Amino acid sequence: MTEHVFSSYRDLPVETVHLLRGALDVLDEAIIVADQAGRIVAWNKTAARLAGVPIDAPLEAWAEAFGIFLPDERTTCPPDTVPLWRALQGERVDGVELYVRNTRAPKGIHVVVSARPILGEQGRVRGGICIFYDATSARLAKEALGHAEARLRAIVANTPNVAIEGYDVQGRVLYWNRAAERLFGWSEDEVVGRTLDGVILDESSTRRFVETLEEIARTGHPNGPNEWSCRRKDGSQVWVYTTIFSIPTITGACEFVCMDVDVTPLKHAENRIREQARLMEVQAIDNANLFHEALEAISARDDFLAVASHELRTPLTPLKLQLERLVRDARAGASQERMAPALEVAYRQVGRLAALIDRLLDVSRITAGKLDLCLDEVDLCALVHDVVTRFSREAEEAGCQLSFHHDKPILGKWDRLRLEQVVTNLLGNAIKYGRGKPIEIELDADEGTARLMVRDHGVGIAPEDQGKIFERFERAVSNQSFGGLGLGLWIVRQIVDTHGGTVRVESAPGVGSTFRVELPRWRKTQGESEGPRAMTQGA
Ligand code: ADP
After folding, report:
1. Mean predicted confidence (pLDDT) in 465-472
2. Higher-confidence residue: 379 or 5?
3. Are residues 145 and 287 in the same domain?
4. What confidence category does residue 310 fall into, taking pLDDT thresholds of 50, 70 and 90?
5. What 3 state SS string does 270-328 have?
6. Residue bearing the CA closest to ligand 1, atom 21
7. 127 vs 115, 319, 396, CA distance in Å?
8. Which pLDDT score is estimated for 535?
9. Rounded distance between C-alpha atoms, residue 326 and residue 332, angstroms
10. CATH label of the domain that carries residue 475
11. Are both 11 and 109 inside the same structural domain?
């Protein structure tokens, strides 16, 4: 190194000057100093190794003499951009990247150069200094890093079927690969910088997402795979199986990577299977119910057959006895007077048998929907009067006083025989279940509706039984106490329903029962012009 560098330190002891030279020579940075005229006047060992100074070339030829190129390694550095030259013009130059290839460094090196003017009194430029270092390995490392990153980005961008997205700690999108574009319908340009609220998540899911990121940042543990329900840009729903993890960045901030696999088809299949399982369960319950109902129907039928055979046998026994007696009397040539009471009893039992058989026939007809109504103008008052008269003897025998005082005609369009059946069944029950007590029958009508009431003061019906007594074979009493098929009220309801009317009961156990029937008087029935209306099962 020449004396010029330390000219201002002229008075320094020689030892100190050597020390300073030695210090400059051990630096990894190269130092070159030029005077005001552009002559290189000082340099350290690193500069000699990298640049091959000293050099005897004018300032303008430095680039070629030193082999200075731009970073592209081909273009010679223009003379007026050489940092030391710029420093001599009074400029401060920092961190300029250049390439040097010369006999000292035939393979070429990349250098980073800074330069400063050296100022004298009154701020005049007296010279310049440039400092540079070999940045080849740093550049190679940076290039390698760049390549690795580019490779990674290419893999991320092109990974099919896995949506990969990057997020910052606030949950803002940093990148969004093509699979994510395809899956969610949003392009990367549309979403980068945005949070997911209103993009693919709703407000609460976005909150959950950001909380998940915060937890990953706190614990360092990845999250998932977990199922997330998202919306596509077109509003349709999409289910993804998501894993989220964090990766460190150069700045030290956390970056999160989210990998989503579309499980929507699986989810739909799962829902279909669930729905099928639910339907099968419902079907199984229905079948079990049907099976239960069938068992109940079989049991009801068995009960009915037992009761029906008992009921049919009841009048047969006295009938047989009376007929045997009559046969004996006839053979013995008995008088008519003697035979008359037995004949009367036999006649009554035959009537009872016929009524029972009629009732059974009605059931099968109604059930098969074959019972027809023959509508005609009928006087309800006269009809009830007839039935009451017919029952007078039976009522007397049962100790029931019948009271019926209505005498004004109540006309309507009804099926006479069926209405007789209604009154007969109600009055018959009142006598059967109200023995020894009076029975009131009342009629009433306004323009459109006729009303019949049959009240007894007998055993009554418990509230829980009142709803079911109008059903087929349903009874609220034991067979031992009262005979019966459990069909009378069911037939009443079928007939009244078919006339467009209603029947209901008010009753209390031990107090008695009141049955009320309401019938529309002139209702036009469906298909009336084509003849009587077919009677159907049920209400
Ligand atoms: P049955 O009289 O042949 O049993 P019904 O269908 O006529 O059949 O009546 C069904 C049930 O309703 C009867 O078994 C009885 O328990 C109850 N019931 C009907 N009428 C009366 C009434 N007037 N008083 C008390 N219970 C009655």
Report:
1. 90
2. 379
3. yes
4. low
5. HHHHHHHHHHHHHHHHHHHHHHHHHHHHHHHHHHHHHHHHHHHHHHHHHHHHHHHHHHH
6. 429
7. 11, 153, 150
8. 40
9. 10
10. 3.30.565.10
11. yes
For residue 129, what is the domain's CATH number? 3.30.450.20
| Ligand 1 midpoint to CA 316 (Å) | 23
User: Residue 507 and residue 463: Cα distance in Å, rounded?
Assistant: 7
CA of 21 relative to ligand 1 center, distance in Å: 132
pLDDT tens for each residue of 273-284: 999 999 999 999
- Residues 443, 498: one domain? yes
Q: How confident is the model at residue 369 (pLDDT cuts 50, 70, 90)?
A: low
Confidence of residue 533 (pLDDT cuts 50, 70, 90): very low
Dist. CA 493 → ligand 1 center (Å): 13
Mean pLDDT of 468-490: 81
Distance 305 CA to ligand 1 centre (A): 18
Residues 200 and 335 in one domain: yes
SS (H, E, C) 152-176: HHHHHHHCCCEEEEEECCCCCEEEE
Q: What's the domain count of the chain?
A: 3
Given 347, 367, 387, which residue is the final one in a domain? 367
Whole-number Å distance, alpha carbon 139 to ligand 1 midpoint, is 107
Domain that holds residue 472: 375-536
Among 469, 496, 515, name the best residue to mutate to test ligand 1's pocket (greatest count of ligand atoms within 8 A of Cβ).
Answer: 469
22 & 148 share domain = no
Q: Rounded CA gap, 35 and 41, in Å?
A: 6
Are residues 184 and 314 both part of a single domain? Answer: yes
Distance between Cα 108 and ligand 1 center (Å):
119
Which residues surround ligand 1 with Cβ inside 6 Å?
Answer: 425, 429-430, 433, 456, 458-461, 469, 475-477, 484-490, 513
**Which ligand 1 atom is nearest residue 515's CA?**
23
- Nearest ligand 1 atom to the CA of 487 is 6
Tens digits of per-residue pLDDT, 205-246? Answer: 999 999 999 999 999 899 989 999 999 999 999 999 999 999
When mean pLDDT is compared over 38-42, 172-176, 321-325, the highest value belongs to 172-176
This model's pTM is above 0.85: no
User: Quick one: angle between helices 380-398 and 416-433, nearest 10?
Assistant: 30
Cα–ligand 1 centroid distance for 287 (angstroms): 33
Residues in the chain: 539
Which of 475, 504, 516 maximizes ligand 1 atoms within 8 Å of its Cβ, making it the mutation to test the pocket?
475
Of 367, 396, 412, the domain-final residue: 367
What confidence score (pLDDT) does residue 525 get?
A: 53
The ligand 1 atom at the shortest distance from the C-alpha of residue 486 is: 8
Q: Which atom of ligand 1 is nearest to the CA of 491?
A: 6
pLDDT at position 123 is: 86
